[in-house]
Amino acid sequence: MPTALRHYLTITGNYWLFTLTDGAIRMLVVLHFYQLGYSPFAIAMLFLFYEFFGIVTNLVGGWLGARIGLNRTMQVGTGLQIAALLMLTVPDPWLTVAYVMLAQALSGIAKDLNKMSAKAGVKLVAREGNAQLFRWVAWITGSKNALKGAGFFLGAVLLAAIGFQGAMGLLAALLVVGFLMTLTLPGGFGAIKAKTGVRQMFAREPLINWLAAARLFLFGARDVWFVVALPVFLVSIGWDFHWVGAYLALWVIGYGVVQSAAPWLLGARRPKTGSGPGGPTDGSPDGPGARTAVIWSFALVLPLGALLLAIASGQTAGWIITLGLAFFGVVFALNSATHSYLVLRYSADEKTSENVGFYYAANAGGRLLGTVLSGASYQWLGIAGSLGFALAFVVIAGLLSLRLVALESSLGGEGD
To answer: Is this prediction's pTM over 0.90?
Structure first.
């Protein structure tokens, strides 16, 4: 097996196992603490440190990965997730808000160290042009999200079968396998010889900065209804935990499948020769550009607008909401796949880990904003309020993406 493919499969395998546990934790915490009588806003607050430390971790992690190697940052992330899982195996009386927030902080650090390492690692092992890069990053991202959906369902099933603490212990044991896989990566994988200063944590390339800004609002638009509002809404109208977990699992699995298929759904072509290898106007077979990001951002207005019109006319049945959000998921998946590819396409090899870290810090910022607003908007405005915030956010993401089109043109590329 070629070395590049072997490393890619190792990175993907660890990322899969990590993501399965991460999705399960999210569902276990939401449903268990709803059982204990926590309000939607209080449940959202349990994830506050998870999202906040994701921002910090991505900024520091990209810089750290360039210094010590992506294999080490992946190992640290996996180890911290095991520790966070074990922290949540204690009896219910110990599970205070502060204690769970601390465990979620560790999990947030772990998740974003692992994600940054995996995404930056793909850039370094994909050496056959941008078409291969698009396929590989779409596959690792899409399959990861499919497994995150499976994790939601697994969390709901484990909660019913063996309880909260037993589920956490089982997930920790599973992730030990992922940690052992990371030990096969070469030492110093992804480290650069020229040591960068701390200020390199913050991207300075305009393309990366504008893409990160669009990413913040794109993911805020998803999490503002997904994290707390939708599962609590479905339980409130009579769905049991198994059905809630199954729907969220199927939503994320479908989202992941569409992401994985994005290279074929969106197509690829050969743009004009431009700025050189690794840049946005490389003459190798290419994937989508900024115009694709703009089109699919504004396309998200359609399912959200239709849902808000349905709610305004009194149509609040669970099947209407879930069907509309399934259409949202298809469009969102193509958008997310485009973004995940563009951040690697816009990055030269020596800046990959710093750029990816900065970009996913914005991603974590969007999740933080969406998580807080998910509990607050649902508690005070209902499901319509959560969807209203989502609509505003996708419009902002589309407007920010327009700037990428101008920047691509100024660099001599055709975009799409």
So the answer is: no
